[in-house]
Amino acid sequence: MDQDTANRLYEVGGKLLFLNAPERLEFGIDYNAWTIGPLFKGVKLIPPGLHFIYFSTTSKEGVQGIRTGFFKYFDVSEVAVREWNPKTEDLYGENDLDPSQVDRYIINIRDFDRNMGPYPLDPPTYYQRWQHLTNHITPGLVKRILPNNGRVSHLPASTTTETETANDDGNDDSVTGVVDNNPPTKRKGQQPLEKEEGMEFTAFDLRQSFPAGATGDQVTKWSLDKSWLAKDLLERVYRGDHRLLLGEMQLAFVCLLMAQNFSGFQQWKQIVHLLCSCRELVHDHPTLFVDFLETLQDQLEECPADFFRDILSENNFIASMLKNLRDVIPPSSTALYSKFNKLKRFLQKRFQWDLPDEEDEEDDEDDAPVVVDLDDSY
């Protein structure tokens, strides 16, 4: 990055003071992680917008602790201050900090400049990937779903498959440490936690996908076609804006990907299941599903192959959901078909996984053995 560009970014970029953190703390923002040294004081040149900051301690034996983080929406030139609490091995709450001291830090922010690492924008693809992964998440969504100042913790379930961490080359730098450009993965040997409070994902029951007082025919119809439930949520929760629904889907996925949060995983699966089960809504609102497939592909592009095999394909979840959606796409919706076929090609190339065509499934049924019930008298 040349000096002129750095100067411009310094004026508009956000800054995060991260004070008194211990050495060898894993510290990350979005797709970049460092093992910090004693001089580290935070990050500068943060592009305005939504970011996820996370951290975890490392024991003397080199065992990584539980990852904790928070979402933060940075306004232009905003300075955020966080301080480490050695007693809890966590951050002090924002309300626990002395407001006058925080104001002094902000006024004298340039005094910390030499000890603040720049937000990595080279190569630019990492920031672009982060933008694609979060482009529908609004500050209002974060505030509603994560009311505890955007905080989210690693929340595994006993049934979740553990994945190995990326190899660490052991190098260290006195300020910023080593950048890990791979999405963080779950640490081995961690124990399941109790369900974390402070996560308020939109609650809905896929088994109750019909209106109150529905007739028997309506119960049957809307149990098979989840369009009524999706429309109700869009109008009642998301103010008619399907991008907010996709924003919650993105927020849930990032909670899973970056913090290995099981509540995020469950909500993500719920939303995918809902949107892949809406025959009527696909006809009425195809743009929603074009955007949904684009969002889903952006997310699957961030998943390593073993993650897809062990978690996303559990009980053939992705396969069955995409087959459901394919079967309800109207033939006239060329844009939606094009987006669906693009996702199919991606799955085949990245994961060597084929979604059978409808014709192939019909052929398989024709070739299946015929079962004949024999009369007991024979």
From TrEMBL:
Residues 14-147 form the AAR2 N-terminal domain. Pfam families: AAR2, AAR2_1st. This is Protein AAR2 homolog. Gene3D superfamilies: 2.60.34.20, Aar2, C-terminal domain-like (1.25.40.550). Belongs to the AAR2 family. Transmembrane segments: none annotated. Residues 201-355 form the AAR2 C-terminal domain. GO terms for biological process: spliceosomal tri-snRNP complex assembly. InterPro entries: AAR2, AAR2_C, AAR2_C_sf, Aar2_N, AAR2_N_sf.
